[in-house]
Design goal:
By secondary structure, the protein is mainly α. It has helices spanning about 1-25, 30-40, 70-125, 130, 135-150, 155-175, 185-190, 195, 200-235, 240-250, 255, 265-275, 280, 285-300, 305-310, 315-325, 330-340, 380-395, 400-405, 455-475, 535-550; strands at about 50, 65, 180, 345, 420, 425, 480, 490-495. The chain has a two-stranded antiparallel ribbon. A two-stranded antiparallel sheet has the order 3-4. The chain has a two-stranded antiparallel sheet with strand order 5-6. Helix 9 (about 200-235) packs antiparallel against helix 14. The protein is rod-shaped.
Length: about 550
């Protein structure tokens, strides 16, 4: 019996010794001093032994290695530590789309420059002096396209109509040098360019191709810019005081208990981050809508709205239109004379020769797809679009999965023996859903669901507006561009003709004087260029021979 009592006494002593050693370890704050100093704080702020924590506001009270002053400093540190992973993830996403936008923007601008340069070189070789003396018409054409892409403010359909009207005005005079045409007469001619169809079906096809491809290209590039801008603005949103308090409790209260290596439980971290990032998660629906709309528009860019396929051979298409006018100049002239009246003959000594009856059949050699030139950006649309599509797909659900992205790796514990907010144990609370509305019962963060963040709400509206613009571009329609940082609405303007605006007949007025004035055309006025009175057709025929030789 005595032996049993002795054994019991020894066992009790051993247990007491272990408990005393554990208590001493808890009350010894050596590890806390080292960890606290590694954060850049003065380790002398940390007591050598555990103290009474009755004055602590966040961490569990009792014997602790933290003082109220330490708690305040660690609270500020937790704000920085909370922001770091969110900022890093957001910065990577912003950089991804900012870089893609820069590449697309550079590509589109250089594509236009290359198309203008190609047309200038080919037309100079082919049409010689006749092109040079009318080059400002084509220069204005490309300037308007560039201005639309860069800043908008250009009605593409109207601009194209004015270009063809200006081209008809010049060619009509050159193939009818034996007549004198007044400004009013030329207004009559240009007013009915579309009905006369002097350039065949090229203007109609080109109008459809240019408007759709340019609207798609500009809207797509704008979408990339808006995505990066939205991410940048949202990443500047500061954490609320309640969020900082919850982060402090999750990351640094283990320090106060002397357990500097103890990490938070995974679900505990998720609840904290879902509460802290509730406003960001509310962006998810509109964010995903923009990603889907961008992906749909990307499909168009790879197919029928491919701006590269439109701009590469644009010199060939315009040349075909010019030759169509030349081949049908007599029929076109007769229609004009019937509708606008017979013009007065020109002064005899000003007519050196008349247009010959015959035409020429010169054609530019079309581009071989394998010879398609790349821009100075070193790429083509076929390579740019798939790359962007890949990143758009990866970016979906970015905001709703942000808590999972933060609560990963070394930040959390790998097992159940983890910090649950009060002790080293399991975390049994249910993980909350995403967004403000689901944080009413969040056990770890106090979230005021009645006060959404205004910066984020504004960005949600920006995303919604961008989605509408992308959908319009997908359907081939343009939307007036406005400041995306402000709430506003766009005014749609479709391409093509609708309803009664479409007319197929060349309707003439009885006399020229009753023709309403047409809209002034920038850079294509009849008196803008002094043209020689030599026959356009003869010079074109001579130039065609040189062109054919150079293109073989």
């Amino acid at each position: 019996m005595a032996g049993i009592n002795v054994l019991s006494l020894v066992w009790a002593s051993a247990v007491l010794l272990v408990a005393v050693r554990a208590e001493l370890k808890t009350r010894t704050c050596t590890e806390v001093r080292l960890a606290y100093g590694s954060k850049g704080f003065n380790h002398n702020d940390v007591p050598h032994q555990g103290v009474n924590g009755a004055q602590l506001k966040v961490c569990p009270q009792g014997f602790t290695c933290c003082t109220p002053e330490m708690e305040e400093k660690l609270s500020q540190q937790s704000r920085t530590d909370l922001r770091a992973p969110v900022t890093q993830l957001s910065s990577n996403l912003q950089s991804t789309f900012t870089q893609r936008h820069r590449r697309f923007d550079q590509f589109f601008k250089e594509l236009l420059d290359n198309a203008e340069r190609s047309l200038h070189d080919m037309f100079t070789r082919t049409y010689g002096v006749m092109y040079v003396q009318n080059a400002e018409l084509f220069k204005q054409f490309f300037q308007d396209l560039k201005r639309y892409y860069v800043s908008g403010g250009v009605n593409l359909e109207q601009m194209l109509s004015e270009f063809w009207a200006g081209l008809l005005e010049r060619m009509f005079k050159l193939v009818n040098v034996q007549y004198h045409f007044t400004e009013e007469y030329m207004e009559c001619v240009s007013k009915h360019t579309e009905q006369l169809k002097p350039f065949g079906d090229v203007p109609r096809k080109l109008k459809l191709q240019v408007t759709r491809s340019f609207v798609a290209a500009r809207t797509f590039a704008q979408g990339l810019a808006v995505i990066g801008d939205v991410v940048g603005k949202v990443s500047t949103v500061n954490a609320s005081p309640d969020c900082v308090r919850a982060a402090m409790k999750m990351m640094y209260c283990p320090y106060c208990s002397g357990q500097v290596a103890l990490k938070p439980c995974p679900n505990y971290c998720l609840n904290v981050m879902k509460g802290c990032l509730a406003n960001q998660a509310d962006m998810d629906t509109e964010w995903n809508n923009v990603m889907d709309a961008m992906l749909n528009l990307a499909e168009r860019l790879e197919g029928p709205f491919n701006i590269e396929a439109v701009m590469d051979p644009i010199d060939v298409k315009i040349s075909d239109a010019i030759m169509n006018m030349q081949e049908n100049s007599m029929q076109v002239s007769q229609k004009v004379f019937q509708g606008c009246g017979q013009p007065r003959p020109a002064v005899p000594d000003r007519v050196s020769r008349s247009a010959p009856d015959g035409g020429f059949n010169a054609r530019f050699r079309p581009y071989n797809p394998e010879e398609r030139p790349t821009t100075a950006a070193g790429t083509s649309l076929d390579r740019l679009v798939p790359d962007v599509k890949k990143h758009l797909k990866l970016a979906k659900k970015f905001w709703s999965t942000l808590p999972e992205s933060v609560c990963a790796g070394e930040l959390i514990s790998a097992g159940d023996e983890c910090w649950n907010g009060t002790a080293k144990s399991r975390y049994d609370s249910v993980v909350m859903g995403n967004g403000l509305a689901n944080q009413v019962a969040n056990p770890d963060v106090e979230v005021d669901i009645t006060k959404p963040d205004l910066v984020i709400r504004r960005q949600i509206m920006v995303l919604r507006l961008m989605t509408n613009r992308l959908k319009s571009a997908h359907n081939g329609h343009d939307v007036t561009f406005f400041d995306m940082s402000e709430d506003g609405s766009g005014e749609e303007s479709g391409s093509g003709c609708e309803g009664q605006h479409c007319t197929s007949d060349f309707v003439f007025t009885p006399t020229i004087t009753k023709i309403p004035p047409v809209i002034a055309r920038s850079g294509v006025a009849s008196g803008a260029v002094s043209l020689p009175l030599t026959s356009f057709v003869l010079l074109l025929g001579a130039a065609a021979l040189a062109m054919l030789a150079s293109r073989r």
